[in-house]
Amino acid sequence: MAEENRVTPFPRGIHTYALRAGRMTESQRRSFETLASRYCVPCDGKPVLDFPAIFGREARIVVEIGFGMGISTAAIAESDPGTDFLGIEVHTPGVGKLLSEIEARGLRNIRILHHDAVEVVAEMLLPESVDGFHIFFPDPWPKKRHHKRRLVRRPFTELLVSRLKPGGYIHFMTDWSEYADFALAELSSTPGLSNVSGSSWTERTARRPVTKFEQRAEKEGRQVLEIRMVRTA
Q1: Predicted structure pTM score
Q2: Residue 181 is a catalytic residue
């Protein structure tokens, strides 16, 4: 994989997430202990991911980076059983919660990687192996000195493009308007991407469930902005 990675996404030691000290509930802990072996993909040694082997079929692959507590992830997967979803999250309580949702809803089209998404994309995804990336409400890192930690910026966006199949997409959402402007500029300047809405924001799709971050943003008077970019041939 090293020869196939032509960009270095972030300098060593730069993380795009903040580790939070939230405790796992008893339900989340139980789900993590009993279900992780069934639905979590091992990442020791960072193996190249073989999606047909992981899911037991050939299907469209959507990778969600930072799924939080996974409620919307589970709802999207439930509404689209013909697509397989790989959720990547570093926070253990969120992994435990999504595992419980997978089991409760009887979902068979979700797998989880409990690891740093930047390393997963760089070292475990083959070029042109993914149909879509979902990046919903990533850490905004609002202070200027922390902008280098933002996930949606070049050259990481270039790495995402290399993992997309032609026609594949990147769907980004945030309720921080300054981050939205920043991300739009970074994605628009990334070679190989085209904005499906021309040059600005995309309309919310009716089939996508409302996330808790959207509910909170609406309550606090903030607008949720979405960007949808497609990889050109």
Answers
A1: 0.91
A2: no
